[in-house]
Specification:
With about 270 residues, the protein is an alpha+beta fold. The strands form 3 sheets. Strands 2, 3, 6, 7, 10, 11 and 12 form a 7-stranded mixed beta sheet that branches. A 3-stranded antiparallel beta sheet has the order 1-5-4. Strands 8-9 form a two-stranded antiparallel sheet. It is elongated and about 120 Å long. Helices cover about 25% and strands about 20% of the residues. The chain folds into 2 domains: about 55 residues; about 140 residues, no CATH class. The protein is built from 4 helices and 12 strands, in the order H-H-H-E-E-E-E-E-E-E-H-E-E-E-E-E.
């Protein structure tokens, strides 16, 4: 008896995929190599541009650092020197200030109003709870200007003393007496305000900085480069205020003799 062949599902024929014939312009090997070459060149150009920009940034940073270094050197080589450069200053607005040329009087007019405005103590007699002396010398165009007697001393009729301020003079030596009921700091700016003469880093009275004529202030023989109004008047400070050219500067010592004034000798 013949064996029966099991029924198998009929296999479907595999569809044939039509492949378009290669075009002469298609992506053959040569074309792909050319595209790869162009991509490499484009990448190289991109990297070159990045390097150019990076080096450009470095160059800018280096130049900026060099500029800062040059400015630092020209300023004297320290931030402290820059900080000590003269800063603009001005006398406060006070009564009867003398704004003309030297010589200047003792500033009696408006004295009481000025000292009240700046907060300098006033008393009917000299107060010695805090007492010391300093010397202020002034030169204009090489010539010494007299600091008058009676600065800071109020009078009723020009002769009878009515009050003393804590900053005053007893003669024309330039010795400034600090005689106060309280211990506190008095400054060179306070002295000029009591005197009634305008004074700042750029002017004294009617003289203002112009060209090579400048205000220069020396403290104990050394040029003071800050705001001269801020100079503290402590015991035996020697302050020289000058206006004019460098050629007109006087010989400036570091100290002054303690016998310079009979009002306080031998310890002025």
């Amino acid at each position: 008896m013949a064996k029966k062949t099991p029924n198998r599902p009929a296999q479907r024929p595999v569809p044939k995929v039509a492949v378009a014939p290669a075009s002469p312009d298609g992506p053959n090997r040569k074309v792909r190599k050319e595209e790869a070459r162009r991509e490499r060149e484009a990448l190289q150009r991109k990297m070159a541009r990045r390097r150019y920009v990076r080096w450009g940034v470095v160059a800018v940073v280096v130049l900026a650092a060099a500029a800062v270094g040059t400015a630092f050197a020209l300023s004297g080589g320290s931030t402290k020197s820059a900080a000590n450069k003269p800063t603009p200053s001005a006398s406060p607005t006070l009564d009867n200030m003398q704004t003309g040329d030297a010589p200047w009087n003792a500033g009696q007019a408006g004295l009481l109003e000025r000292v009240k405005a700046i907060g300098v103590p006033v008393a009917a007699s000299e107060q010695l709870a805090f007492h010391h002396h300093d010397l202020v010398a002034i030169y204009v165009n090489g010539h010494k200007v007299t600091v008058p007697i009676g600065v800071g001393i109020g009078t009723n009729d020009g002769q009878t003393i009515s009050f003393y301020t804590s900053i005053h003079t007893h003669d024309t030596s330039g010795v400034v007496h600090i005689e106060s009921p309280v211990q506190r700091t008095f400054t060179l700016g306070n002295f000029f305000d009591v005197w009634g003469v305008t004074f700042s880093s750029t002017n004294i009275g009617g003289y203002a900085n112009s060209g090579n004529k400048q205000i220069r202030v020396y403290l104990n023989g050394k040029l003071f480069t800050g705001d001269p109004r801020s100079i503290a008047l402590t015991q035996h400070q020697y302050v020289v205020v000058t206006y004019g050219t460098k050629a007109e500067l006087p010989k400036i010592a570091a100290t002054y003799p303690g016998t310079i004034s009979t009002s306080c000798s031998p310890d002025c």
